[in-house]
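Table 4 source record.
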Amino acid sequence: MKTIYKKLFIALLLMPLTLLAQNTLTGNVTEKATNLPLPGVSVIVKGTTNGTITDFDGNFTLSNLKSGDVIELSFVGFKTIDVTFSNQRNLQVSLEEDTAQLDEVVLIGYGTVKKKDATGSVTQITSEDFNKGANVTAENLLNGKVAGLTINTSGAPGSGSEIRIRGGSSLLASNDPLIVIDGLPIDNQGAAGATSILSSINPNDIESFTILKDASATAIYGSRASNGVIIITTKRGAKTLQVEYNFQYGSGKNVGEIDVFTGDEFRALVAGTFDGNGVQLTPGIGTPGQVAMLGDANTNWQKAIYRRTDFVDNNLSLKGNLFGSIPTRLSIGNTYQEGLRLTNEFTRNSVSLNLSPSLFENHLKFRVSANYTNQRNRFADGVEGAAIRFDPTQPIYDVNSPYDGFFEYYNPNLPGNPFLNPSTPNPVAQLLQTNDRGTNNRFFGNFEVDYKFHFLPELRAVLNLGYDNNDGERSRTRSTSARSGFQNNNISLGTKFNEANQRINKLLDFYFIYNKEFGDLSFEGTAGYSYQKFENSGQAGFEATDPTDQLRYYVDTDVVLLGYFGRANFNLKDKYLLTLSYRRDGTSRFGPDNRWGNFPAAALGWKIKEDFFKDSTVLSDLKLRLGWGITGQQSIDQASFYQSIYNLGDANSQYIIGGQPINVGVPSAFGPLKWEETTTYNAGLDYGFMNNRLNGSLDVFYKLSNDLFQIGPFADGSNFSNQGPQNVGDMSSKGIEFSINYDLFNSENFNWNVGFNATKFERRIEKIALGSPLFTGQSGAGTGGTSQILQEGYTPFSFFVYKQLYDPSGAAIEGAFADLNGDGLINGDDRYIYKNPDPDLLLGFNSTMNYKNFDFAFNLRASIGNRVLNAVESTRSYYALIQNGVLENISTNVLNTNFVEQNGENVLSDMYVENASFLRMDYVTLGYTFPKWLEGKASLRLFTGVQNAFVITKYGGLDPEVTGGFDNTIYPRQRQFLFGANVKF
């Protein structure tokens, strides 16, 4: 009996130690379907940071466990399981494939769909896959990531981008895609004071982009979907409190210059070269008068107008569950970026709030998104043209100059020191003497109510109210010492310019969603109504020092869009998919007879894997998609062209009645306009292998746009103008897109993911007004010249040039062009269509590596076969241009051509249409994460990188990535060296 008591006593003494014991668990994780080991599985004790990852053989070891701990095992593409630790020493686990997780939910218009059930051409990019680096505007998070999507951004800080999905669908109307932010379609027209419409969105607040590319996906947006749709979703709250701070600093510089003569080279060109005794060794091309104009300086004007730049980005976000029931996210951001031009600055302050509470057991959901952005900008004139022309032998400053000490060309012998005309203005002075500032305040957001009926849970009603108020102003001032001010008799009067406007966008969407399963058939139906109104009012640009410029306040005609839409999704046996959609849209831009448009779409999907490869352990996804649809376009500058409108005349349109000038009503041109319509056919194949470790898609498409807006002639006497907008024109586009993503390695210590995409498309003008070509683009020489053409049977904006002739040695002969029409004359009738700016092939490649706590990522983009007219060389490669009133610099390309005189034919020689193919590395970053910083309370990631790391090209200009294919100087893209930190609590 005593022995029993002793044993019980010892057991009681040891019990606390047993309860507090820290145990170790070893285990192995395999895939249930194949019994193969799963490397990279996350094994973590719930509610703690105690965790590990399975090794290459699926093994793991987890220490510091207590009885009752819940261990979570999770892996992408598999169902997460929880195991309660009860002091066992070993654990064998098999994870089952989670098809719902493999096929994540993607956003589509007015709803969502599982990716595995999507029938349209849809691509979703989440924040984990965004481009890294100094992305000041939202769209650059996507550059190079999506097949069929091109983004071309200038070098100005916060500047807008040319965004194109599958090349666009219009000629002279907008080719910009519709952008929807949290359910609010935004106006692509910005307000004064801002750099671009997307510069008002803090990229750190964005959770995902969904790109809808074909009509079966976009037709639900009807009248604005011809150019594709980009849906932006902002970040939401979380169940637990999470605090994140991001800091980034960048130092930028200009890389590369346009090749012109240096000061010493220019003196040698004009005056010749001399030995140390003053004996001339080689003659110059200048006259004695030109030699006398030479200065003693050696100024690099391109270097003088640029500077080293700073970039600072701070973002703080807090997300959690407010009062335990309202998922909330609050973020505050500040971005400051300097442009390369001396005075160019961009500052953005942003606040974003998201609330998403749910009531009545998730039957009633609210989503509130509110965003406020304040922009302060200092704009800078484009002075690159003056910098490459200005005499490099002259200094930047002149102590005797009456123009704030800047060197300028003026006549000191006349009253007021009038400027010499013609003469090039000092580009440094133009930047420093111009105070061009803008302020823009923008508030946008939406309030969404989603109610699932208690008596009919299959039915939901959704109300979405959106509001966007974009209010800005801009002023530009220059003193009378600035040559760039308004001039009278070559004497500066300075500049006093002001403009302001307010754009308001109001939205009301109301729709029902019905979900029901009927045996093997799943059905989802959507039906609703949309109302959107765009308002714009303000003060027109006003130059106070110009007596001919009158201050004018205006209120634009409101643009109202109404839409009735419906969509039905059918899923039979989780194999066969059918989507039908229809939208009827009305716009105030068109008259009563043409106001309404109908936009149907249909798509089929077949999960081939489920019929032929259901038991395959290698093939995880194989789906065929077929789509057709019609979308519209009504985005033109004319808000009421269908009406006969009389505008109040100005001083140039008055009658004298009774000795008094009377302003008259001036009639404007008008006429019936209707929708542009684009019909799209799309066939696609989605594939995945090894639980989607390797996945991608292949799409082919054909688009035909009818009734294109274009400026065409009116019959004599039929209107109040000889030309105006009309619906005359058809254009086709066809192409192929391919994408692939692959987790090359996925282990405990090393992970490597790569992505590749390729796009090939061709555009052709099928019909144009009266079959007559339209001449467009610039020539770069004088005014009124054109270099591009819109012609039936050819790519839009093809180059329209002269065919250069060459001597037997291959050297171009000045002024010698092919007489293509054989009439013995060289004139405009001998121009021909030669190449175009569209690329033959677009490529994108991205890579992300993780080795233990290190991460390394980069993004590459390539454009092959795109052509650019190098107007810098075509207009400045002539010896005669060394003097235009005063001495001016010229392109060193003149040493290759030896051309003397510039004329209308030489500047349009096909020799200046260059192959501008390129390979660009957008960014490269290297980081290291301290996972248990501050005694495990936070994680810290430090990183460094390079933005715009390199460009490989044979193009002779500054940068081959030129909008529209015409290069007459651009704002250069700076190269930035980045450093930053990310802290998560």
